[in-house]
Amino acid sequence: MKSDVFGSANRVTELHETNHHTEPNCHTISGVATGEVLQSALAKAGSLETGKIREVLLKSQCHTSLLAVKCDDTGANSSGSGALIQIQKGKPVVVYPEELRQAEPVYPKPPWGNQ
Predict the structure, then answer these.
(1) d(CA 63, CA 75)
(2) 76-85, long-range: CB < 8 A, 24+ apart
(3) Domains in the chain and their CATH numbers?
(4) Helix 9-20 × helix 26-45 angle, to 10°
(5) Sign of the dihedral defined by the CA atoms of residues 50, 30, 84, 13, in that order
(6) Residue 111: pLDDT above 90?
(7) pLDDT tens, 21-70?
(8) With helix as H, strand as E and coil as C, how does the chain read?
(9) At what angle do helices 26-45 and 50-59 cross, to 10 degrees?
(10) CB–CB of 83/97 below 8 Å?
(11) What pLDDT does 35 receive?
């Protein structure tokens, strides 16, 4: 998926590794995606007024480095997109969807002690 801000999840990982000398975890990537949604909504609203920001969120879609976000009238993401992460060699990697894939999924899953 092409992010409106960073281009891709791989770019976020590169920037994080360069600046923090460690791989980002799922919390980091989720936080980045949240920031991307907020940045996009603020830019489109042209205001810090909550009502205007909410209106933008309800009417537009944002492509983040993790997933596409389209809010329904309750504020939940109705785009149906997301990422499936699998622990491989002790690290979380995106295995689905294909456009975000960092590694092929391992199936069947090896026993916990053999990962």
Answers:
(1) 16
(2) 81/1, 83/9, 85/26
(3) 9-81 (3.40.50.2300)
(4) 110
(5) positive
(6) no
(7) 998 887 888 889 889 999 999 999 999 999 999 999 999 888 888 778 88
(8) CCCCCCCCHHHHHHHHHHHHCCCCCHHHHHHHHHHHHHHHHHHHHCCCCHHHHHHHHHHCEEECCCCEEEECCCCCECCCCCCEEEEECCEEEEEECHHHCCCCCCCCCCCHHHC
(9) 110
(10) yes
(11) 92
To which residue do tokens 């907020």 refer? 38
What CA–CA distance (Å, rounded) separates 80 from 4?
18
How many residues are listed for the chain in this entry? Answer: 115
Q: Which of 13, 15, 5, 72 is nearest to 38 (CA)?
A: 5
CB 55 within 8 A of CB 48: no
Take residue 51 and report the two structure tokens written for it: 């009502």
Q: Are 84 and 9 in contact (CB under 8 A)?
A: no
Q: Distances in Å between the alpha carbon of 83 and those of 20, 28, 87? A: 23, 14, 13
